[in-house]
Amino acid sequence: MEISRYKPGIVQLQVLIWAAVLLLIFFSLLPMDGLPKSVIYTVVNTTSYAIIIYGNILILYPVFYQKGRFIWYGALVVIFLLVMGILRGYVLITLYQHYALMKTAQLSLPTLLGYVPGGILIYVLSLIFRISIAYFALKQRAEEIMLQKSQAELNLLKSQVQPHFLFNTLNNIYYKVYKVDPISAGLIERLSDIMRYFVDESPKDVVPVNTEVAFIENYIELEKIRIRHGATINFGKAYNPELRIPPMLLMTFVENVFKHGIDKSLMQNEVNISLVQKEGYLIFKTINRIIISTATGPSKGFGIANLTQRLTMLYGSNFELAIDTTGGLYTALLKIPLQ
Fold first, then answer.
1. From CA 218, how far away is CA 231, in angstroms rounded?
2. The pTM is what?
3. Do 127 and 267 lie in a common domain?
4. C-alpha–C-alpha distance, residues 67 and 193, integer Å
5. Any idea what the CATH number is for the domain that residue 233 is in?
6. At what angle do helices 70-98 and 116-160 cross, to 10 degrees?
7. Where does a domain end: 157, 191, 212?
8. DSSP secondary structure, 60-98, as one string
């Protein structure tokens, strides 16, 4: 098990922490104990602390505790701390005596055991350190999984709202029709633009807002030819043309207008659409008459539910999606933050 795999740069961070510990111990002892004794005490104790910490989190904990061998783990921890405490005391006393830095007690088991309790606190700190590493590793993995899941769901949802246009020879048809019927040729050109949008733009994370608006306008013109008596579509726009938004966010409402908000038996249908930039948000609104046959709730269909899921993945709770059916009008409003 390698600590470095949990978080980029964690090895460098540990080096800085240990350097700080060395300097802190050394300079806190230097005024009272002098240079030689401070160096010996700092090096021996810091080395001992490092062995206890890494011996536990790299060997004892993963090899025994994580595999359910709790009795072995407990016994080995006790032995490990005893050995490290005795060894630390032996090295310190021996070095002090060798350099005649101070009068020390003779080497004896009781004296050496007095160095064991200091290692217990370091062991507890190693457990906290190990738990922290596991927590951040788990959190990092969870974030990666959620990101992958959200991206997969987002791609799926985007693909579900894309109609399937499979006319590979539209350009040839356009040139042939243009000679006979320029109006129909213009509609074929709009259909070609829609297909190009699906192929080139919709897979992207964001697109220019003007590109999205052009797509909607092409769609509107194609839908209007299916309305027997025509329709008046008022599309008001007030935004920075350099804005970029996720593709296919606005299309659901426009589709609902033509599916549920047009009465083909009327001589005239009127629809009001607006796209306005205001106070850091982009606000899209559609207003159309409620057709009796669909007044029970056109917003309950797949499109709105699909859009809501996608907006949640993109913006969390920082968006507004509202439907109002008062006054005989169906008003849909979408408010998203500008990025």
1. 15
2. 0.50
3. no
4. 61
5. 3.30.565.10
6. 130
7. 157
8. IIIIIITTT-HHHHHHHHHHHHHHHHHHHHHHHHHHHHH
Strand ranges across the sheet with 231-238 = 231-238, 269-278, 281-289, 329-337, 320-324
What is the per-residue pLDDT across 29-73, written as a single tens digit (0 to 9) for each? 777 767 877 788 888 888 888 888 888 888 888 888 878 888 898
Q: Is 185 helix (H, G, I), strand (E, B) or coil?
A: helix
Query: Which helix (DSSP H) or strand (DSSP E) does residue 212 occupy?
Result: helix 209-224
CA 144 to chain centre: 7
Pairing of strands 281-289, 269-278: antiparallel
Task: Work out how many domains the chain is built from and give that number.
Answer: 2
**pLDDT per position as a tens digit, 160-175:** 555 444 445 566 666 6
Give the structural domain span for 258: 229-337
265 and 137 belong to one structural domain: no
Distance of CA 129 to the CA centre of its chain: 26
Tokens representing residue 129 in the block: 């350190």
